From TrEMBL:
Residues 268-353 form the ACT domain. InterPro entries: AceGlu_kinase-like_sf, ACT-like_dom_sf, ACT_Aspartokinase, ACT_dom, AKii-LysC-BS, Asp/Glu/Uridylate_kinase, Asp_kin_monofn, Asp_kinase. Gene3D superfamilies: Acetylglutamate kinase-like, VC0802-like. SUPFAM superfamilies: ACT-like, Carbamate kinase-like. It catalyses: L-aspartate + ATP = 4-phospho-L-aspartate + ADP. Its EC number is 2.7.2.4. One of its GO terms (molecular function) is kinase activity. The keyword Nucleotidyltransferase does not apply. The keyword Plastid does not apply. CDD domains: AAK_AKii-LysC-BS, ACT_AK-LysC-DapG-like_2, ACT_AKii-LysC-BS-like_1. It is an enzyme of class 2 (transferase). Belongs to the aspartokinase family. The lineage of its organism: Bacteria, Pseudomonadati, Pseudomonadota, Alphaproteobacteria, Rhodobacterales. This is Aspartokinase.
């Protein structure tokens, strides 16, 4: 029988009632003849609560125990979903990651899926089970420890199962009815897209649109998974939601197709470092070895052989960055006057594959921000995106103004 993957996010399984509603959706697909793999998140708020408990117990926690704790929310919803389906006379059972097994790397709290052998679940399908309910977000390391895939990781579990089981489709049920031109919670004018190209979705996700975890889009692109985002709260047709697909499947699109933003940014500046070959290497090697994910980088014009180096990184990595730079100073690799951290910044990005063939997007973006009196602190670009770092208090304003200026409320 054809296999379908259906993933339900936190808000879609937040109460027993909602689990019943989701189970009914699963029942509809079973009745159509699919064997279904259901991937569930923890009830909304649960993972945050578990993370909070870990931090309170042990601020410098052992990442293996962090994973043991924070993966547990999904175990509860997987069992409850299987019970709900059984109550509806749908043959179902739950699976935790290690039982499948979902084999991952041992990078605790941000592990990558390496392999999902389908044999165990396929055997059960062969014996008449119709639904395998799998706890999302978790796997097992080569050492036999429980791992998690990073926040939002159930999306990745879902796509990885779709690839491993050659599923007909991977449906991501969430609390919005598809992928929008920007987060509908920030702009009332955000427009739902019927289709979005993998590459655009990849950029939007990595630039902060949390509707899909970045890694899930990468996997869908690599394994050509038919990926759809849709609402678990509305009646659905086969055309509902947003299809994430190959560029060739989209006839018309705007030059800019979406705007993403991220609040969790910080800007750090190393004041007055020597401007000589090897200095950037020394700074960014220290940061990388300290586990800091550097995003944007700018180097100022040099004066009298000294320069300032600025970068952005996630705001919760500032302490690590300071420690890494401090260590490099103590070891004599770096010499500078000061290290300044600005934590009140946000990143706003415009994304669109149309930028490959259209000029003027950057000019227009900067003009719009200037008209709103928003100062740009750092800029980065790639072939299909332009990102700026601005004061956080202007983030919503910038998103809305850019959405208007690029007329994203209107279809191409
Ligand atoms: P789930 O718990 O189902 O995984 P998430 O909260 O992780 O749901 O992701 C859905 C949320 O993503 C939406 O509620 C919305 O606020 C946010 N979001 C951000 N950018 C977008 C976008 N471009 N389109 C749709 N939703 C977006
Ligand atoms: N429950 C996990 C989280 O909140 C994984 C997920 O929902 O995708 O990050
Ligand atoms: Mg999510």
């Amino acid at each position: 029988m054809p296999v379908l993957v259906m993933k339900f996010g936190g808000t879609s399984v937040a109460t027993l009632d909602r689990i019943r509603r989701a189970a009914k959706r699963v029942g509809v697909e079973v009745a159509k003849g699919y064997d279904v793999i259901v991937i569930v998140s923890a009830m909304s708020g649960k993972t945050n609560e578990l993370v909070g408990w870990v931090n309170e117990t042990s601020p410098m926690y052992d990442a293996r125990e962090y994973d043991a704790v924070v993966s547990s929310g999904e175990n509860v919803t997987a069992g409850l979903m299987a019970l709900t389906l059984q109550e509806m006379d749908v043959p179902a059972r739950s699976w935790q990651g290690w039982q499948v097994p979902v084999k991952t790397t041992s990078a605790h709290s941000s592990a990558r899926i390496e392999d999902i052998p389908p044999a165990n679940i396929m055997t059960k399908f062969g014996e008449g089970m119709r639904v395998a309910v799998v706890a999302g977000f978790q796997g097992v390391s080569p050492e036999g420890r429980i791992t998690t895939l990073g926040r939002g990781g159930s999306d990745t579990t879902a796509v990885a199962f779709a690839a491993a089981f050659d599923a007909e489709r991977c449906d991501i049920y969430t609390d919005v009815d598809g992928v929008y031109t920007t987060d509908p919670r920030v702009s009332a004018k955000a427009r739902k897209l019927d289709k979005i190209a993998f590459e655009e979705m990849l950029e939007l996700a990595s630039l902060g649109a949390k509707v899909l975890q970045t890694r899930s889009v990468e996997l869908a692109m690599r394994y050509k998974v038919k990926l759809r985002v849709l609402s678990s709260f509305e009646e659905q047709s086969d055309e509902a939601g947003t299809l994430v697909c190959a560029e060739e499947e989209i006839m018309e699109s705007n030059v800019v197709s979406g705007i993403a933003f991220s609040r969790d940014e910080a800007k750090m500046t190393l004041v007055s470092v020597a401007d000589r070959p090897g200095i950037a290497a020394a700074i960014f090697t220290a940061l990388s070895e300290g586990g800091v994910n550097v995003d944007m980088i700018v180097q100022n014009i040099s004066e009298e052989g000294r320069t300032d180096m600025t970068w952005s990184c996630p705001v919760d990595q500032i302490k690590r960055a300071e420690a890494a730079i401090d260590a490099a100073k103590k070891s004599g690799e770096l010499n500078f006057d000061d290290l300044i951290a600005d934590t009140d910044v946000a990143k706003v990005s415009v994304v669109g594959i149309g930028m490959r063939s259209h000029t003027g997007v950057a000019a227009k973006m900067f003009q719009v921000l200037s008209n709103e009196g928003v100062n740009i602190k750092v800029i980065t670009t790639s072939e299909i995106k332009i990102s700026v770092l601005i004061d956080r208090k202007y983030m919503e304003l910038a998103v809305q103004a850019l959405h208007d200026a690029f007329e994203l409320d209107k279809a191409a």
